[in-house]
Amino acid sequence: MSVRENTPTRLEVDLANGGDAGTTPVAPTVRRRRSSSGGARVEIAVLVGPALIVFLGFVIFPVVMAAYYGFFSWQGYGPPTDFVGFRNYVTILQDPTFQEALTHNGIIVVLSLVLQGPVAILLALLLNRKLRGQSLIRVLIFVPYVISEVVVGTGWSLMLQTNGAVNGMLENLGLGAFTQDWLSHPDIAIWTLMVIITWKYVGFAVILFLAGLQGIPEELPEAAAIDGASFWQIQRHITLPLLAPTLRIWAFLSIIGALQLFDLVYIIWGQYIASTAGTSTMATYLVANGRNAGNYGYGNAVAVVLFLISLVVALIYQRFVLRRDTEGAITGKGKS
Amino acid sequence: MTVITTPAVALPPANPSAPIKANRRWGTPVAYVVAVIVIGLMLAPVLFIIIGGFRTNAQITTDPSGWPSVWNIGNYLDVLTGGTFWRLVGNSLIAGLATTLGVVLLGLMASYVLARYSFRGRGLLYATFAAGLMFPMTVAITPLYLVVKNLGLMNSLGGVILPQIAFALPTTIIILVPFLRAIPDEIQEAAFIDGCSRLGFFWRMIVPLAMPGVITVGILAFIASWNSYLLPLFILNNDAVFTLPLGVQSFASQYSVDTAKVLAFTSLSMIPALVFFALFERRIVGGLTGAVKG
Fold it and tell me: Which parts of chain A fold into alpha helices (H)?
């Protein structure tokens, strides 16, 4: 009789698909009737259990605890007892060092978009044309993205020291007047950081844009070319508008990444120099004033602030920019 | 990130519909000039690190941007024959492979249930995992450190591996669920008619059929683990268990006067990632683009 059980009706299938966050329109999945019986429950528990335990234990629980610890003055020994309400949050928001870090994050968000966006679009447009060695070019542009932040940070900080390769090269070229203290001059350091960030992450943008460009049907630019449009006219009026969804998603990833920037700054500037050089970020502030200072409660409050700022930015972006592309994706309610 | 629909297996060829004749054209010289300049800028810092490792400290001091007058392989040999580098590579390999294995195994099992079982609370379960995308590790790092400490996993690779698996699960599940759902039902029906149990079906059919998706997910997890910095920084305080990124940093500060050796060490530590990237370039790029193509 098992054969009978194994062939469900289509009706069950459609019911079973309801309420799912996945949006892929695939053929209705066939499911067995036994789904609510004990055997299936055991299977579900055995299969999902390990993933769920690891996920709840190492992602959800720590996130919840961060929100909880944030209300305490706590040095990390024993359970937190010194409840201080919102005092940590008041301190954070009034701390000029935090405000500076937040400002730096804002500058990095804007400059990342302004610097990487146009460069990546131009590169993607150029590389999307028929070129010999296109795939090699694509791989080489992507190399900095694959190298770890520590290697990038170590290499760049050696090059940018006052007696490093960049200044050395400027002198060899007779441009000695342009040598700078690239890393610690407060007016320059943030631009140095932006150059490094652009260098490291522009390849990612180019790859995304190339993928987006390849989704544009050949016929549109061809038709425009037949009608006498120039290359740049075609890009401006046909390609770019069609690339807009990819651009919006890239911008989203870039903004969130810039708000949470930590590795590069911490590796190159360390925890102390970052604030005097004007490159500190909310995340380096978190680590410097939380764990490194031994104030675990305070550090967690910073984490909550960082998360809330990212969340608000994400929701605003979702509401006003991404809406037409991915309705409801960020809030988790798939429109299906 | 939030719009993953189908895991692209590889990039489609540049212009599938273009006539062959057009592919033979060389295109405009401007594009080549720009491409060469850009590649030069992209590779210059990498080459600086690699070539710097072949110089001596005296040379680096007198002319920091110069070419090596004599190619000196002593720095590289020192690093390669010393134990530190290989220990770091070993630790990074263990952490990377264990993370990848864990993510793939747990992610595949959970995705299988989410894709092919129907039960109450499935939508909620999926949403729970998907919500993980909203929490970067930075936000949870301090409590995470305390959890690991309470589990007695400080200064052990396990303390890095478990959180990495947990934080990689959302992406993995979001990529794998549509993949598993797309496996034709006829295969499942046929297997059941032949008396295959559902778990048997999982091992014998789902795992092999999901391989392309699994490989993409595995590569992403491995690279993330290989380059991971913040978590090991919190969990590993003992250089016996350092992973490569921590090791590079500690080497750089320990031998800060020996710039040439630091450069040699840094460039050697970059090689595994570059080789890995060269081998799986199509899948990595394909996975990333697939993830964002709405």
Answer: 2-5, 10-17, 38-55, 61-69, 87-94, 96-127, 134-146, 149-160, 165-172, 189-214, 219-226, 231-234, 240-259, 263-277, 282-289, 296-317
